[in-house]
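[retry 2/3] Arrestin domain-containing protein 5: previous attempt timed out, resubmitting with same input.
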Amino acid sequence: RPASCSLPPRLPSTFTSKIGHVFYFMQASCVGREHILAKKRMYLLVQGTSDFHKENPLQNPLLVEAEKKISYNCCSQGTICLQIQMEKNTFVPGQRVIFTTEINNQTGKCIKTVIFALYAHVQYEGFTPNAERRLRAESSELLRQEANTQITPFDTTKIVSTFNLPQVLSVSSSLQDGEIMSTHYELVSTVHLPWSLTSVKAKVPIIITSAPVDPDSCPPLEGQLSPESQECQN
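[retry 2/3] Arrestin domain-containing protein 5: success.
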């Protein structure tokens, strides 16, 4: 027969890393007088919630600039100016992130490669048996694009890029109110300059807020029982 289960209003997202993970599953059991006759477990992808975005309003529009003086060919010098422009920097999982990168190449060399990447930075808080506070950080690359272009000397080029965010993401948060894990995101554009053995980077903070996830776009996953899972039985 049909059964239902209401999730609590505040939950962490489904999450997996080298340090820790959060799993959710639903379990149905058919029990006889003395034995369990059948058992079915189904993993769920759960989008978490947070109040972080209420404390961090939209920045609209957003412009970040990085400039670097470059030396090459022993005595030649020039400047690379890198800009990222966005209409907003707050998104929900599954949205499209559209941004424009402008590269002003004031050197006598050609620029051939620009890399765009979205990073998640997670910080964990815990305590030792002696109640000593410990912090540990972990970073991972979620999305990556590489633009092969020819930015000629003393010229400016604009590149419009799009990232499609995953349907389930940990929401942006901070280590407050007893939380053991905080997450923040960063969009990074990198211009590699192999002829000077250096690079130029522009970084934009990205805020991820909670939103309902379409169940048709995130089907449940079947698997083994995890001791860290949170259980909902019927």
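[retry 2/3] Arrestin domain-containing protein 5: Confidence is low (pLDDT under 50) at residues 212-234.
[retry 2/3] clearing retry counter.
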